[in-house]
Amino acid sequence: MNKLGRGQRDKVQQFMSITGSSEKVAVQALKASDWQFEGAFDIFYSHSHVRSAADTRHLEELYNRYKDPYADMILVDGITLLCTDLQVDPQDIVMLVVSWHMKAATMCEFSKQEFITGLQSLGIDSMEKLKERIPFMRSELKDEQKFREIYNYAFGWAKEKGQKSLALDTAIGMWQLLFAEKQWPLVDHWCQFLQARHNKAISRDTWSQLLEFARIVDPALSNYDPEGAWPYLIDEFVDYLTEHGIIQKGKLNDWSYKL
Question: What is the mean pLDDT of residues 48-60?
Answer without folding.
Answer: 64
